[in-house]
Design brief:
Strand order of the largest sheet: 1-8-5-4-2-3
Oligomer: single chain
Helix content: 40-55%
Radius of gyration: 20 Å
CATH topology of the largest domain: Dehydroquinate synthase-like, alpha domain
Shape: globular
Structural class: alpha/beta
Number of domains: 2
Largest sheet: 6 strands, parallel
Order of helices and strands: EHEHHEHEHHEEEEHHHHHHHHHH
CATH architecture of the largest domain: Up-down Bundle
Length: 396
């Protein structure tokens, strides 16, 4: 097991009606002037925003709001939020929504605490992030896990880049998790969320290290729980117990606990990010479209690892033949994505068949224009990345 530091300061309030505690939690963490960030119209139509505003008003908290966050959140809207937060002298940012809203709120928080710095510089590493504004979350979508994670992803549409920022300043100070707030989600969003939760765990599980007994056991238990309850939720998204499990698994899947003691892989996420940046496809869909082809390309590095996944997560076993068992785990995972209605190749993703030049560009951009490799289970250079994209492109 490799050395690690684990610190997750996010206070979690889980269960029915917990959104009513929002004002108390903001005050507990020093907030007085709040910028509320949200996405489309669902938070308004459901009455959630009105309930939150009423709590803020009753507590004497000043607030303004910024809506319009979309999937694959953009740095442009976050910059607009920074200007608004600075103008109102905000000392707290409240995200009401899912991962896209939360990541936008994180960007606004960083910019508000560092006036004069373009927040994209934090995402590219040009400027080090050394301070931020407290962020709280009222979660409405079990998916990204951003409510407890040290990560945030934004897209710069001007240059067609999607980048992630990892920093302890990204950890929200509190997260309110009421599974009932998920009941109005479209089935496709539920399916994308289930996929994202699985992939946040799988990208920590398929790593070179094999001496993480506790972390591996936690990851396998979480994967089994998501698979079982995801099947229930996709049939009945108003099943409170199933959505409860998914919501909590979403937070655990990305708060680092399932990967402690290893380096993580994250190749599938990086492959998917380029698809989202270029084609504006849903994040979860980009992951399900790429996973099979990444897995088939890399599994022979360590078939034993995939065989363990097959036996401990899918209860699939081809006896002593680790390679056949490994392949069975890949088939089981892809079949599950299909059962959720998720795409498993480029055609199903809706981007058609790409030409050689487009595939070359995707691979080049995925290396940050030749500046990096991706992955740890198998280190992928530009040629290998291109190979994997080509497999997804050719599949029917």
């Amino acid at each position: 097991m490799r050395n690690f530091t684990y610190y997750v300061p996010t206070e979690v309030e889980f269960g029915k009606d917990t959104e009513h505690k929002v004002a108390d939690l903001i005050q507990k963490h020093g907030g007085h002037r709040v910028l509320v960030v949200y996405g489309g119209g669902s938070a308004q139509k459901s009455g959630l925003l009105d309930r939150i505003y009423k709590r803020l008003e009753d507590a004497g908290l000043e607030y303004q709001s910024l809506g319009g966050v979309k999937p694959n959140p953009t740095v442009d809207l976050a910059r607009k939020g920074v200007e608004q937060a600075i103008a109102m002298k905000a000392d707290f940012i409240l995200a009401v929504g899912g991962g896209s809203v939360i990541d936008t709120a994180k960007g606004i928080a960083h910019g508000n605490a560092n006036p004069g710095t373009d927040i994209w510089d934090f995402w590219t590493g040009t400027t080090n992030l050394r301070q931020s504004t407290p962020v709280g979350v009222v979660l409405t979508i079990p998916a990204a896990g951003s409510e407890t994670s040290a990560s945030a992803v934004l897209t710069n549409t001007e240059i067609g880049q999607k980048r992630g920022l990892s920093s302890e300043f990204n950890r929200p100070v509190f997260a309110i998790l009421n599974p009932e707030l998920t009941f109005t989600l479209p089935l496709y969003q539920v399916a994308c969320g289930i996929t994202d939760i699985l992939m946040h765990t799988l990208d920590r599980y398929f790593v070179p290290e094999e001496d993480n007994e506790t972390s591996d056991a936690l990851a396998e238990a979480l994967l089994r729980t998501v698979i079982r309850n995801g099947t229930i939720a996709i049939k009945n998204p108003q099943d409170y117990q199933a959505m409860s499990e998914l919501m909590w698994c979403g937070s655990l899947s990305h708060n680092s606990i399932t990967g402690l003691g290893s380096r993580g892989d994250w190749a599938v996420h990086q492959l998917g990010h380029e698809l989202s940046a270029k084609f504006d496809v849903a994040h979860g869909a980009s992951l399900s479209a790429m996973w099979k082809f990444w897995a088939l390309y890399v599994y022979q590095v360590n078939p034993r690892r995939f065989a363990r996944y097959a036996r401990n997560v899918w209860a699939v076993d081809a006896g002593r033949d680790d390679e056949q068992t490994a392949l069975a785990s890949i088939e089981a995972t892809v079949a599950y994505f299909k059962s959720l209605g998720m795409p498993t190749n480029f055609k199903e993703l809706g981007i058609g068949t790409l030409g050689d030049a487009e595939l070359d560009e995707l691979a080049y951009r995925c290396t940050y224009f030749g500046a990096r490799t991706i992955g740890n289970f198998m280190v992928l250079d530009q040629k290998k990345i291109r190979d994997i994209y080509s497999l997804a492109n050719q599949a029917v």
